[in-house]
Amino acid sequence: MFTDKDIKQIQNKGISIDQVNSQIKRLKDGMSYSNLISAATIGKGIESYDEKETLELVKFFEDNKESLSILKFVPASGAATRMFKFLFQFLKDFDPLKDNLKTHIERKNDGLLENFVASLNQFPFYDDVVKRAVATNSNFESLSEGEKCYEFVKTMLDQDGLNYSFFPKGLLPFHKYGNHAITAFQEHLFESTLYASSNNISNLHFTVSEKHHQYFIEEFNRFKKQLENETNSSFKVSFSYQKEATETVALTKKGKVYRNEDGSILFRPAGHGALLENLNDLDNDIIFIKNIDNIVVSKKNIHVSNYKKLLAGVLLEAQQKIFSYLKKLDTEDVSEADLKVMVLFLRYRLNVPVTVDFESYSLTEKAKYLKEKLNKPIRVCGMVKNEGEPGGGPFWVKDQDGNVSLQIVEFAQIDFRRKNQQGLVYKATHFNPTDLVCGVKNYKGEKFNLKDFVDPEAAFITMKTQNGVDIKALELPGLWNGSMAYWNSIFVEVPLETFNPVKTVNDLLKPAHQAS
Q: For residue 132, which phi and psi values (nearest 5 degrees)?
């Protein structure tokens, strides 16, 4: 039962009472795990192109892109705190006046810290941190190795220093060119000119947190003019926040709605699936999606970006056929032979199984069935070979109605207690690097309502801690998982070199993030 105060709080967030009750029910009923049938592999759900075919598809995209409205969508609101987790632990455990750095690293068997210390001057922020540390402590250069390292890390992370732990990854120095370091945000703008622009205009949309929005604007204004001159492009950059109406309630161990100290209901951000609302507000022909931390230095990016053009070429080629079929179906001048071609396309190009009853349908019923299957948003997703990186992957999945489809499945959606499901995961050859291009308009140029293609059963339930209390939290179906469950999907193999995320600060030491 909700009080009048509760109801007002819920309504002020733009959420209905029915939605909250539905969230509570889902949390109590538990999570619905994906029913994996098999891993998607080359020739069985994942396409692979040789060099000649790749060049042809890249050219097809480049020949058509000037007539399209193209946008790059970048989730950029995640805090960088986890990047520095092992450094926060170092500040907590290390006493610079008593401990020896080398002995501390050996005692803790801390390989991350050892690597960090050994490569300190290779980080893009090294000069900025040292400059700030010296300004704060004039004796910095004469400190012992342990004291110097401690002060360096403290200067990086503390609020009184550069406060890197406050900022999102997008606003941190990621790459260094000569004496100049630039942010991941700036690198994404440069990258957009390589594939996500038309008529020398780059459209980008970043989802950010409200507290960081102004910092992004200031950063953009700082380098905008110079970057436009260097790339002969103009940039149209927009921002949005995760909407309050997508937030979800949490339950205590006793199944009660968790409340804040003032008695109000705790509403939590509902994961990246909440960003479907932001994506749904955009009105472009083609939308590239890529995470903020998956970005390489400019010299390497010129090569890597060809694979984004490959994905877009695959999408445009498939979309061209889909649109022609749908227009044909609209004329009603369609033969059995036409329908057979469409069935083959559905099965072998879009990976959509066709019902066994199809042949018993009348011509009109067949046309209606095919139109429903074809007239959906489409996504082409890059998949890289599985070489031990964590993350979800491509699988054939059967839903509760017995329908089989090609999906990106996160590990959290898999019931590892079932040996057959666990076995299928170990047989997977590829994983999802979150590198996709989307077609969100229909054959008439009308925008799909993307919320119509979500599988609500694919929500995540996770255990969290709030003020020292264990809570059961609900996340909406993931943006490229359950939120796109009923899209048409094509998976394409791309090289591992296209996947260069920065999960810890030490990832910035990898060759993909080093300009020299």
A: -70, -40
